Amino acid sequence: MAVIPVELAGRSYEVRIGNDLLRNVAGQCGDLLRKQRVPVVTDANVAAHWRDTIEASLSAAGHEARWHVVQPGEGAKSWQGLQALTDWMLAEGVERGDHVLALGGGVIGDLTGFACAILKRGCGFIQLPTTLLAQVDSSVGGKTAINTGAGKNLIGAFHQPSLVLADLGALNTLPDREMRAGYAEVIKYGILGDAEFFDWLAENGTAVLAREPDSLEHAVATSVAAKARIVAEDERETSGTRALLNLGHTFGHALEAETGFSDRLLHGEGVALGMVLAARYSARRGLIASETADRVASAIAASGLPSELFELGLACDGRTLAGHMLHDKKMDAGTLPFLLIKNVGEAFMAHDVALEDVAAFLDEQLG
Ligand code: NAD
Ligand code: GLY
Is 137 in the pocket of ligand 2 (CB under 6 A)? Predict the structure, then answer.
């Protein structure tokens, strides 16, 4: 098992990465579960695979699991979903010193984390991430949110979990497409700050996607360690360091918006293609050689993720895609900071990118 500390003064916690963590969830959580009844939030897909495992561990330790099961998908991250969850938590008598278990992907972690941030002005929660995306990204760092009609993740709070248990065995029931989507966030850590890890993934990516235990643990632990370092340095995304985690997200978000935030393009798939576009745009501006952008595109393509914009078959132009970027959360006083790369392993924030230039570039890529 790998144990990665997230160092945040009075709010520090551990991310434990290994096998059988869900089977021993009661022991892993220890005294954080201070009452007989333990509230668990999950979605119906995850419940179908993992409810019995959690139930067995909790009941063997004398606890009673209390379940709030939502429909799978982004729809749960809504005002209605939040209301239903907080009403349920109040009815369950959750107190500020209690911990709620968030068992699932980023949707469950974000929704539960936000509910716990505001319930009685803040109660505890434990992340039990069951997607690769949640294990390497969303369960660590304390960003919690719901979506509104105006956009994704626009209502939220920073609220750190007390513990994260990333059980690699949970990924055995994850559909391959979701596994690949999470893998995009793994490659992201290589491209943004760790050229050696990028090279390691080029050799071992297939084994990671096949859930080969040692490779998977190395990939998840390296990703979490990178995220923990960044979060410890810039917890609230104020210095610019944490913003590096958004590499590929500005292009990706525009593509997700154009495809209606639907199954047509999963978030991680949008990020994958977004990182290729960020690399190609960096090459267009003369920051990197076009061969370096090609290396990024090849790494993405080799893992079965989308790497060419024209392959999406979008019926829009570059201006339309760039228009979606105007609604980006990162817009600051009318300008959009843009993450580009100086090399594999060296991302930086550019503040001089004109959206018209991005639109012209996207027209070229749309083919
Ligand atoms: P998700 O939670 O919707 O999970 C994807 C699908 O996999 C769902 O259908 C789910 O039911 C299913 N699933 C989950 N675990 C499973 C398992 N072990 N076996 C079988 N099926 C399983 O999506 P996600 O990709 O994990 O997360 C996306 C969400 O995360 C988005 O809402 C995004 O905004 C958010 N996010 C948050 C952060 C953050 O820092 N808080 C970072 C990145 C993304
Ligand atoms: N996923 C981006 C962040 O946690 O900051």
Answer: yes
